[in-house]
Write a structure and sequence with these properties.
Elements lengths: L5 H15 L4 H20 L3 E6 L2 E5 L1 H20 L17 H27 L3 H20 L7 H30 L5 H18 L7 H9 L2 H25 L9 H20 L5 H22 L2 H29 L13 H4 L1 H15 L7 H12 L3 H26 L20 H19 L2 H10 L8
Antiparallel strand pairs: 1-2
Helix pairs in contact: 1-2, 1-4, 2-3, 2-4, 3-4, 3-9, 3-12, 4-5, 4-9, 5-6, 5-9, 6-7, 6-8, 7-10, 8-9, 8-11, 9-11, 9-12, 10-11, 10-16, 11-12, 11-15, 11-16, 12-14, 12-17, 12-18, 14-16, 14-17, 15-16
């Protein structure tokens, strides 16, 4: 068996063992080890054509290496986050009202996430749009179990996710069919064929990348799922979607000749970032805020990709890595807060900053990173986007700045609520004798992720230079 196929066989093969161990902390540890080893393996494997299957190329290239290793590493961090919630079925704590539900949902998350990662690897290795779309659709069906987990009160988020993602699949199949016809005929038969392919591709990726008004699957998953599961969905699908889109634009540079595709990418990215940022600034809970902050960040990355060029590929990969760091940091911090309070609404978390200062700091740092605030890892790609977009249209520059300010305001409002007293008409901080002890494993993860976000904000070259060494592809510019 070709070595690259171990990236598919390893997570899928480990799924039965993880399923049997899902009720204990060993399930999380085994799943995390498999994911970490797969991330290391993705980096170490040689690039090139793996095999030709029924006339279709299965290839591992540097872009796939980076995106797959990012997926595996981020998922492993989320698995480790759930270890403290998995210590025994009867290990209940009176001061942890939400930890039991997170632990129960994690039992579904461990095996399902490994299967989903295996399908994502298959999608990433395929260079045929139709086959990639089918694998991602299969992954979406399994992701319903991650979003829904063991909750019975509402199925809205899972149904919305499945319906919207499924709408994109026939669009990609139609686009792949016309692309194959074009290749068989030796070239595009007419400009009309080009516009039809660009239309199908544009609409399909608009759904996958949660472009407004197709953003419902992203915000509902962030609101109704537990933080680690929400972070997995918000990290994994955009990474695979951007990787597929970059491959498509590199393999089919004539797509850039479409009269509206590039402009549509830029406009959709800016508009999505603006709507996400504005909505983030008026939310009343960290779950809703996470969804709209992630939407803003996703729109900004799409706008970067629409600018084209080799720098755009590096900026997109840098942004996706920073996005994964920020979402993982937010999910760990919110999970820690859920050990103390059952809800993450601003009203319910009043005073928790005095009891959980590390989790509060991690939550704010992660949110500001998504907003692209200075001294965070999100600032470098955000600043580059602002400089580039200013040369295209200054009005778009204003919209992006307003969106970033909106996300920052949303998290600062949340910080203000967490610093306020949870006793009315008091004006004094909560009694520190009631301080809640944050679990050490979660504190370690928060510390590592938070310091990494700050270090990349101060020294972005630590990540940019390795990416420039590995990635040597560029997007065509119209």
């Amino acid at each position: 068996m070709p070595t690259a196929l171990w990236l598919i066989a390893l997570p899928i093969g480990a799924t039965p063992l993880v399923y049997l161990l899902r009720r204990s902390w060993l399930g999380a540890i085994v799943a995390a080890l498999v994911a970490f080893f797969s991330a290391w393996l993705a980096v170490r494997l040689p690039v090139g054509v793996v095999l030709n299957l029924l006339g279709r190329t299965i290839e591992l290239d540097p872009l796939s290496q980076v995106t797959l290793s990012l997926l595996f590493a981020a998922t492993a961090a989320l698995f480790l986050t759930l270890v403290p919630f998995s210590f025994g079925r009867r290990g209940k704590r009176r001061d942890a009202p939400h930890s039991k539900s997170i632990g129960q949902e994690a039992r579904v998350f461990y095996p399902a996430a490994l299967l989903i990662l295996g399908l994502f690897v298959a999608a990433g290795l395929s260079r045929h749009l139709g086959i990639t779309a089918i694998f991602i659709e299969l992954a979406a069906i399994l992701t319903v179990f991650v979003i829904q987990a063991e909750r019975l009160e509402s199925t809205r988020a899972a149904l919305r996710f499945l319906i919207l993602i499924s709408l994109a699949t026939p669009l990609f199949l139609l686009a792949a069919w016309q692309i194959d016809l074009d290749r068989l005929s030796g070239g595009l038969e007419s400009t009309r064929n080009l516009e039809q392919i660009a239309l199908f591709v544009g609409l399909g990726f608009a759904v996958w990348l949660a472009v407004v008004p197709f953003h419902g699957w992203l915000t509902s998953a962030a609101t109704e799922s537990s933080p680690p599961m929400a972070a997995f969905v918000l990290i994994a699908f955009p990474v695979v979607a951007f990787s597929t889109l970059i491959h498509l634009l590199v393999d089919l540079p004539w797509l850039v000749d479409s009269v509206y595709l590039v402009e549509a990418m830029l406009l959709a990215g800016v508009f999505t970032a603006f709507i996400g940022g504005v909505m983030a600034g008026v939310q009343r809970g960290f779950g809703e805020l996470l969804g709209y902050a992630a939407l803003y960040n996703l729109g900004s990355i799409l706008a970067v990709l629409g600018l084209g060029g080799r720098a755009a590929v590096i900026a997109v990969l840098f942004s996706l890595t920073v996005r994964a760091l920020a979402l993982a940091l937010i999910s760990v911090s919110l999970s820690t807060i859920h050990l103390r309070v059952a809800s993450d609404g601003f009203t319910q978390v009043k005073g928790t900053a005095w009891q959980m200062p590390i989790a509060t700091a991690g939550l704010v740092v992660g949110g500001l990173t998504l907003a692209g605030a200075p001294l965070t890892a999100g600032f470098a790609p955000y600043w580059q986007l602002l400089r580039s977009i200013a040369t295209v249209d200054s009005r778009w520059l204003v919209l992006l700045i307003l969106g970033g300010v909106g996300v920052a305001i949303g998290y600062l409002r949340g910080l203000r609520a967490m610093l306020s007293s949870n006793r009315p008409n008091n004006g004094q901080p909560p009694d520190l004798s009631l301080k809640f002890s944050e679990p050490l494993p979660l504190l370690v993860i928060i510390g590592v992720l938070g310091l990494t976000c700050i270090a990349l904000g101060l020294f972005p070259s630590l990540l940019i230079e390795p990416l420039q060494t590995v990635i040597r592809i560029s997007l065509p510019v119209r």
